[in-house]
Specification:
This protein has helices at residues 5-13, 42-59, 135-143, 160-172, 176-187, 192-206, 219-239, 258-275; strands at 26-29, 35-36, 38-39, 63-65, 68-69, 75-78, 81-84, 90-94, 97-105, 120-122, 127-132, 245-247, 250-254, 306-309, 321-322. It has 327 residues and is α+β, with helices and mostly antiparallel strands. It has two domains: 5-137 and 218-315, no CATH class; 153-206, no CATH class. It has a four-stranded mixed β-sheet. β1 and β2 (35-36) form a beta hairpin. The termini are close together.
Length: 327
């Protein structure tokens, strides 16, 4: 069951407070994206305990957005959309497989425009956001024991944001036909399919070392890896008394903790690439802070492949069986 926006407004009209209280924080979906039950084991228990630690740290944190204090259970307007704010996380795994997906979902800051996340304050302090540059291509190259080299999303004659979206579409799609359709729709206009085919061929030529992963649905397995990285980054930060707000493969922290965030993200990336057989010291052009399929921000150099956006210059059922209704 899902509460409609009109029902939420009706409750609020009578001063009723809506409270986000998920019955399960480790969620498994089937191939139809429906939540299903599963038996707990040491791994699901470990993930749940770690997520409880993260959520407890978040619950003790004061967050403001555009100058307004954000309290769990209160309505928050984001453009034309109204959401009920909450700042706890849950993880969703896909296709009845704990090796697919697992990203951290749910909190209000993941629903605000990326260009306004700089207006979030943590405990009254300004924030910065950092993300991993070209993460999924880097992971695929590491699995193939090959070097990515230069910018994964630069192809002459094409805009970088389009190449980025097309490349990630190829990685995430279950087959190349669906990828072609999605890329053509993004290009739009007359001749879109022909242009999409040309772009796909050029991406394949640029990334011959990982081209066999295109149209294979590999993206969900890569999301499992990047979600484990996100878990590790958050826990390491908490160990230093630092709160972070995850947005998949990026993190928002107080600006004064930018150095610690870069250090920890670089450390986690290094360990991950070594663990999957890659060479994390291979040369690479450092990317910019971007949303998942966007572009923008500033570039770093001479550091691990972590990009940072600086602040503005002007200063469950039985205990062994778990399920969760779709959020």
């Amino acid at each position: 069951m899902r509460l409609t926006a009109s029902a939420a407004e009706g409750f609020e009209h009578f001063d009723a407070k809506l409270i986000y209280d998920p019955p399960e924080i480790i969620v498994l979906h089937d191939r139809d994206d429906k939540p299903i039950e599963y038996l707990d084991n040491s791994e699901t228990n470990r993930m749940r305990m770690n997520l409880v630690t993260i959520n407890e740290a978040l619950s003790a944190t004061t967050l403001t957005y555009q100058g307004n204090l954000i309290r769990t259970g209160e309505a928050l307007s984001v453009g034309d959309i109204r959401i009920i704010a909450h700042q706890s996380l849950y993880r969703i795994f896909n296709r009845a497989n704990f090796e697919c997906g697992g990203r951290f979902c749910g909190p209000w800051w993941q629903n605000v425009p990326s260009e306004t996340r700089a207006e979030i304050e943590i405990n009254g302090s300004r924030t910065i956001e950092a993300d991993y540059s070209q993460l999924h291509p880097r992971l695929l190259y590491a699995m193939a024991a090959k070097s990515l080299g230069a910018d994964a999303y630069r192809i002459d004659g094409w805009e970088r944001p389009l190449v980025k979206q097309a490349t990630n579409t190829l990685i995430n799609a279950d087959d190349e036909l669906s990828a072609l359709q999605s890329i053509a729709q993004k290009i739009g206009g007359k001749g879109a399919f022909a242009r999409a085919r040309t772009l796909i061929e050029q991406i394949r030529d640029k990334h011959r070392g990982i081209a066999d992963c295109f149209g294979s649905g590999e993206g969900l397995r890569l999301m499992k890896i990047d979600s484990e990285m996100a878990e590790s980054v958050q826990l390491k930060l908490i160990g230093r008394g630092i709160i972070s707000l995850p947005v998949h493969d990026s993190f928002v922290v107080e600006a004064r903790h930018a150095g610690a965030l870069e250090e920890i993200m670089g450390e986690v990336l290094e360990l991950t690439l070594r663990g999957i057989g890659g060479n994390s010291r291979a040369p690479i052009e450092f990317g910019q802070k971007v949303p998942q399929y966007g572009d923008g921000g500033i570039a770093l150099s001479g550091r691990p492949a972590v990009a940072v956006e600086r602040e503005p210059a002007n200063d469950d059922l039985p205990s062994d069986s778990r399920s969760r209704e779709a959020a």
